[in-house]
Amino acid sequence: GWQVQDGQMSVQGRLAQAINDFSGEDVIPRGAGRTDAGVHALAQVAHFDLERIGR
User: Fold this and answer.
1) Could you confirm whether 36 is annotated as catalytic?
2) Beta strand residue intervals within 1-51, DSSP E
3) Residue ranges covered by each domain of the chain
4) pTM for the whole structure
């Protein structure tokens, strides 16, 4: 699913890690909606803000 959950892999968690890998910033990406069991996330939209551009 989308939302970060303790001990579980999630889209939001993986996206946050990828953003941190390239920017060095800890962010929490915000999604336009949640993905429930059995529902696809095709065309899901997410947003995040960075304090600076580049490293």
Assistant:
1) yes
2) 30-31, 46-47
3) 1-55
4) 0.76
Alpha-carbon span 47 to 44, nearest angstrom: 10
Tens digits of per-residue pLDDT, 4-44? 888 999 889 999 999 999 999 999 999 987 777 777 777 88
From 6, 21, 26, 36, the catalytic residue = 36
Closest CA to 13 of 50, 38, 26: 26
What are the backbone angles phi and psi of residue 13, rounded to the nearest 5°? Answer: -65, -45
- What are the distances in angstroms from CA 21 to CA 2, 27, 32, 41, 48? 19, 11, 23, 23, 14
Class of the 1-55 domain? Answer: alpha beta
DSSP state of 7: T
